[in-house]
# Entry
Amino acid sequence: MDFTTLTIKVLKMLSVAGSYGIGIILLTIIVRALMWPLGLSQQRSMRTMQLLQPKMKAIQERYKSNPQMMQQKMMEFYKEHKFNPMAGCFPLLIQMPIFILLYSTLMSPQFIQMAGDSQFLFIKRLDATLKTSAGVSHDGTLGVSKYDTFMTGKTAKVYLTGEEQPLLNVKIVKPNKAVEVQGELTPGQPVDFKISLDNLNLKFSQLDQIEKAEIDVTDIQTKETEKMTFVRKDGILISTIPTKEVKTAFHYDVLFLILLFAVTMVFSQRAMMAMNKNTPQDPAQQQMQKSMNTFMPIMLTFTFVIIPIPAGVLLYLISSNVFQVVQTVIINKQLEAEDAKKEAKVDDVDLANAKKIDAKD
# Structure
């Protein structure tokens, strides 16, 4: 079982009422919940870094003429204060494989055939990107462009000579490679597809009896699926279907998701900044942080406009941002409570020492 199939099964298992959108949100919650300890470590690390910033800057200033010595002193400083400067990167690094896997899954032909038409709230297709060449499924005509590629469904309905009832759910071997285009694909002209009999998982005696087969064929680029009847001819199965030139569609629901991602990212960053508002910070670093918080949402928004990102991936990122805001608020309160206990403990020690001094006097 490949990772794409496994991811689809996980999403299907998490789907409520058949909604893959809910499945993606639940997947986000599970992933972020498992990463909660790392999130706590990250925020502790950020708070520690802010507190240690003046001392770190002093070391850098003192050894600026000797980079090697400065690096050594900084490492000693980190070790002394049990501080890992890379701790804040771990949550992002862990999420990257999940992001890539979800992206490849939603763009895969398997997902297109299984759940591409599913809707979630205002999202028409979870596999849709901002601009797509979308065809209309099951209208008897394939919307194509010149260099489109195709795949079959996982199973076929096969009719055998002398048999009244067809064979149902006959497995197709390698659906991604089973169907081939005969001749040149020209939008507006009928196209012939062929499938080798060997691609049907049947006994040799049954292969010899095949008359025809009903098989779903999906255009991977336009995400359109048509049920086609393949007739046996010269040892192969052949089907002809009319085509039309498909036009590029602009998906405003995906655009809204991109903008919603930018908004939730801004809120996430503000929550992180609010956590450090009572912590002394270097003015230059504070200004740089503000600039980054402004630049990053804008940069990612333009990136998602240019690079095709499926709606389902954007839904994952938005859910992750919302979770991040909630997590930051909760952890911030936890850290503030820990700081209050430490301060109270220090005050108790100071009070006890003062009483000892008074007793001696």
User: Anything to note?
Assistant: The chain has ten helices and eleven strands.
